[in-house]
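Moderator note: this is an archived Q&A kept for reference. The question asked for a predicted structure of one protein chain; the sequence and the answer are reproduced below.
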Amino acid sequence: MTTALNGIKVLDLSRVLAGPWCTMTLADLGADVIKVESLKGDDTRAWGPPFIGEGEKKISAYFACCNRNKRSLAIDISTPQGLEIIHKLVKTADVVVENYKTGGAEKLGVGYTTLSAINPQLIYCSISGYGRTGSHKDHAGYDFIIQAEAGLMSITGEEHGEPTKVGVAITDIMTGQNATTAILAALINRSNTGKGQRIDISLFETQIQALANVASNVLFTNQDAPRFGNGHPNIVPYQAFKAKDNWFAVAIGNDKQWQNLTNLIGKPEWAEENTPYATNPNRVKNRAELIPQLAAIFVEKTVTYWLEAMAELVIPCGRINSVAEALDHPAANNLIINKGVPMLGSPLHLSATPVSYNRPPPLCGEHNAEILAEIK
């Protein structure tokens, strides 16, 4: 079997997470990704513990999560020799991904105008905090700050508690996915027109878009979005509950599921027509009265009891697992791979052009000789 992006060469000038996440996805799909690093390496090489290996062979878990299947070229782009290497590589590259601060790539001689003059078919993807235009274009982008400024923290956390960030750098990851999508679209367009183009992807716009129905609620009502803890702004009950021994999640998506749940808990009258809890809009309106009553019922029995009983009635529910428990879940078994270091594989399953795992996360500059020999 061949790979989906066989023959595509990507020059990865990015670092940390959003850009590397994008280029790792392209590499998993078969692209030849050259990760250009400073002589000290990507910042995330030092983000730990935990690490695996010792000395020059030490790899951080953070770096490993987004850099497999790449070749590492460690050079100083700020020198004439380093810049010459980049310009030679660009001649045969299909894609460049960079996440310098606005103007940084241009100062180094690796901006879009310069590189597209060398290779007019080049697809050049810029990733930044706030985009390459506008009043905030010169501001650096950090996932945590974007989660704060773009509204995510205001709707995350306990209802009357402090605003809370998501436990992973979710804005970076979503931005990397958006960049991947845009690059694939640009490759298809190039196959039709023969022309490359510039792509501008920002963390801020990505996170604003990802507010999804919550942002729509605000646009519809002109009222700001409240925080619901583990609840849902538009669906009730759709949240976590404490059982006798642990926590679990219930997601009632329609009134048939609600009817099944009311029968299970001995409250069939709650689903009767024209009652305060019969329909989802009524349950949303009356959540303050309904949720405490449900909580009082669920805490009387164990998680196992509720999960088994709900499964028989096809009521969506699930145990709230720790990360270790989630990694041990049967559905995650095929996602855990080991190429010298343990990693999570790709969730992209293509029947004719499957993803492949050919290289472990590289050591800094591991492929210098190999790559330089290709451009002589």
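Archived answer notes: The chain has 15 helices and 13 strands.
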